[in-house]
Amino acid sequence: MTPEPNADTHPLDQYRDPSDAAFVRDVAADVAAHFGGDLMRMRRANGYSNATWVGDGIAVRIAHTPVDMARETALVRALPREVGHPEILGEGTAEGHGWIVTKEVRGQNLHEVWPTLSPVEQQQAVRQLWARAHIVHDASSSLRTHVAAYGGFVPATLGDATTAAGRATDALGLSSAQQSRLDEVIEEYFRAAPLVEQSVNHGDLALMNALWDGEVISLLDFEFAVLGPVEIDLCRLVCEARVSEDGQQEDSNAGAVALEITARHMDPVHGRALLHGAAVLDQLRDLDIWLGHDDAPGRVEDWRPCRLLTDLLDTEGGYLGPLL
């Protein structure tokens, strides 16, 4: 059972063991001090798998679990400069927890500033977010040695994906028709994935992983970069532009832009199967995260990943409907 958080617990740590969160914060403070920063003057930034503090001219990111960041560091250093990733100042590990320090970049987290943007600015942001990700795709030949063919929400094997689908079926009480559809979508993804061009995907192409300063100026956090169909990034782009915080589908100009980009870049033969499968795998991973919380709020069927997953299994295809 996870210990009860105290009044000083940061909202991003509400489902974490307080002692683990304190350890990560202590590591961040030591690392920041080594690079001339003071964590007390730095602000906590968005992010789930890592804890990030920004200020004093640096950004410090610490893995919540014992994960080495050497592979991510090597990838970032090989990225084309047009991607805009902040310069890495140092990286290392503390008791197995990887950390990376980069230069602080002027700008606001795109997720945080998104509600304040005009419809025109949101459309611009979606196009620019995709443009930076597409630079990575185009550089795949030189970057592919730094990434694996699985990671993030992309399981290593069909068997791993089917096991995750079984957990979802049990948690949500899916009907036999929904279960069959879930298995079918996953199988079609794994059947089609080897048949298309393999690109280096960001793997977590979310608004929170970009910086905005009147335009998208930087793409961040390549920890889930993965070699595979470009639909891995496309499905996230559409989800970010067409789905609200609470999992409700929204029709907007930004969403229309995401749909147009996806229709243009998805594979003409296998794109629908890949897009649908990647989106389902994305929600299965998020559902596993929610299931790991001892005190996740509300009913299981009301959780965001559950709502999105069941919508994707409907005949209309959820937020991907116009593309399927």
TrEMBL record:
Matches recorded under InterPro entries: AGP_Transferase (IPR051678), Aminoglycoside_PTrfase (IPR002575), Kinase-like_dom_sf (IPR011009)
Keywords: Transferase
Pfam family, one: APH
GO molecular function: transferase activity
Domain called Aminoglycoside phosphotransferase: residue spans: 45-246
Keyword Transferase belongs to the record: yes
Origin superkingdom: Bacteria
PANTHER family cross-referenced by the UniProt entry: AMINOGLYCOSIDE PHOSPHOTRANSFERASE-RELATED-RELATED
Protein name stated in the entry: Phosphotransferase
Protein species of origin: Brachybacterium vulturis
